[in-house]
Amino acid sequence: MTRLKTLAMTSVASASLALGGCMGGEIPDASAPITQQEASQGAEFHPQLLAEFGGTYNGPQAAYIESVGKNIAVQSGLGDARSSFTVSTLNSPVNNAFAVPGGYIYTTRQLVALMNNEAELAGVLGHEVGHVAARHSQRRQAKAQQNTLLGAAGAILSGILLGDSQIGNTLSKGFLQGSQLLTLKFSRSQELQADELGIEYLNKAGYDPKAMGTVLQSLAAQNALDAQLQGRNNASVPEWASTHPDPASRVQTALTKAGGMTGTVNRDTFLTRIDGLLYGDDPKQGVIEGRQFLHPELRLSFTAPQGFYMVNGTRAVSINGQSGQAQMSTAAYDGNLERYVRSVFTAIGGEQQQLVPASVERTTVNGLPASFGTARVNGSSGQVDVVVFAYEFSNDQAFHFAAISPAGRASTFTPMFNSMRRISQSEANAVVPRKLDVVTVGRGDTIQSLANRMAYDSGKVERFRVLNGLGSGDTLQAGQKVKLVVRGR
After folding, report:
1. Are 195 and 314 within one domain?
2. Where is the signal peptide (predicted)?
3. Pick from 414, 429, 444: which residue ends a domain?
4. How many domains does the chain divide into?
5. Under a CB-based contact definition with an 8 Å cutoff, are residues 398 and 192 in contact?
6. Which end of the chain is more exposed for a tag (fewer CB within 10 A), N or C?
């Protein structure tokens, strides 16, 4: 959640629908040069995308990522010069990559950290270039403009809690927060087409095309590990956390397409160049530690309910579980908490659904003035409760939870509502970011001994294996470079 961003709970602007991260469609010619219209469209939305996805990551690793991205992009025929493309590394803790018309290509620093060689980096960026070359987003644009972008957060709310009712759709629009909601996903056929084009570009650039399959394997393993650590039965990543929700199903296809082709991977060069990369949450945007969220700059903290997991977006923190969904965010505040709570309900309801709480009550939570209200709504799958719980942090700054749960079960969120507090300066100062530390395996080093150095309280060995692309039967060799996640300023 970005520092001091004030926003209301509204749907994604319709203009953004023209972007499409991973959407759909095919054209016969996947090598037609970038048109002036496409270049203008990309230039228009580029700064908006940077803002929505955490901004640009400007560490020393970014120039290297940009160089690899431009080198693979010119293999597509979209442009005959590296200057035809803009490659950006996003300051986001989510595994994601996408591209938009005009030669604008993006990857998050988190996804780069999951990779293990330069060929994998080139493969991911080449895959995204493939979407641009095949004009997938343009083919989907007309359809996107005809429909309201609900995203997976909306699908969870309307599908699990509300059914396919109008009130479900309306409420869902109010929960569209976070940087991952600007892009739609492609169909399986279009993902496979982009994989195939990415493999073609890898081969042209002299990389080992099998890297497309190995990076998908790592992403699938990370998805499964995230599900395990978060206590989810489902190993898929929520769509609002990734526009590539099903890498496991594409691994074998990608490896088969690569066939017997070979090339370079540049493993040691890659690991050396990404050493020190910020990993996980950026403290400037708040951090998630287990069930606790801390924002050292906003000086606040809260704890998610037992059995729930969180995703930190640029505009809100999402709290997800089987018995409900919630988000913590902020909006314009004029000093009147009751008016603030009612305005959030109005924003959630939108133009088509008047959403009014039965009452708005005042209280105090850990010394903070607070107000809350509940609205019970009839859905096709039964009644649901929508709760808005707001806190005053200063005369012009308030934060709130917006939660939805089956009727009578809103108490699930009561411990979280009561956990919101202002943190001390010493607590804020103690929030230290995690970073990649690339080390050389010594004689005596084992997976267990190196994993013990990982900056986590649980799952150290599992995290180490996934981070380094190691299977359950793989071992280490002295002299081999591996990645650790450590604490560091």
Report:
1. no
2. 1-20
3. 429
4. 3
5. no
6. C
Say if 270 falls within a structural domain: yes
User: 449-457 contacts: CB < 8 A, separation 24 or more?
Assistant: 450/476, 450/482, 450/484, 453/484, 453/486, 454/484, 454/485, 454/486, 455/485, 455/486, 455/487, 456/485, 457/290
User: Distance between CA 79 and CA 382 in Å, rounded?
Assistant: 54
pLDDT per residue of the chain (489 residues) written in tens, 0 to 9: 765 443 333 222 222 222 334 433 344 456 688 889 889 989 998 998 898 888 999 989 999 999 999 999 999 988 888 899 999 999 999 898 988 889 999 999 999 999 999 999 999 999 999 988 887 666 555 454 444 333 333 322 222 233 323 333 434 444 433 333 334 456 777 777 888 888 889 999 999 988 988 998 999 899 899 888 888 766 544 332 344 545 666 666 767 777 777 789 999 999 999 999 999 999 999 999 999 999 999 999 999 999 999 989 888 999 999 889 999 999 999 999 999 999 999 999 887 778 999 999 999 999 999 999 999 988 767 899 999 999 999 999 999 999 999 999 999 999 999 999 999 999 999 999 999 999 999 999 999 999 999 999 999 999 999 999 999 999 999 999 999 999 987
- State which amino acid sits at residue 334: D
Q: Are residues 237 and 367 in the same domain?
A: no
How far apart are alpha carbons 176 and 209 in whole angstroms? Answer: 37
Residue 164 one-letter amino acid: D
What are the strands of the beta sheet with 434-440, ordered from one edge? Answer: 278-279, 434-440, 481-487
DSSP state of 330: E
Q: 417 and 404, same structural domain?
A: yes
User: Are 347 and 263 contained in the same domain?
Assistant: no
The number of residues making up the chain comes to 489
**109 in any annotated domain:** yes
Distance CA 464, CA 473 (A): 14
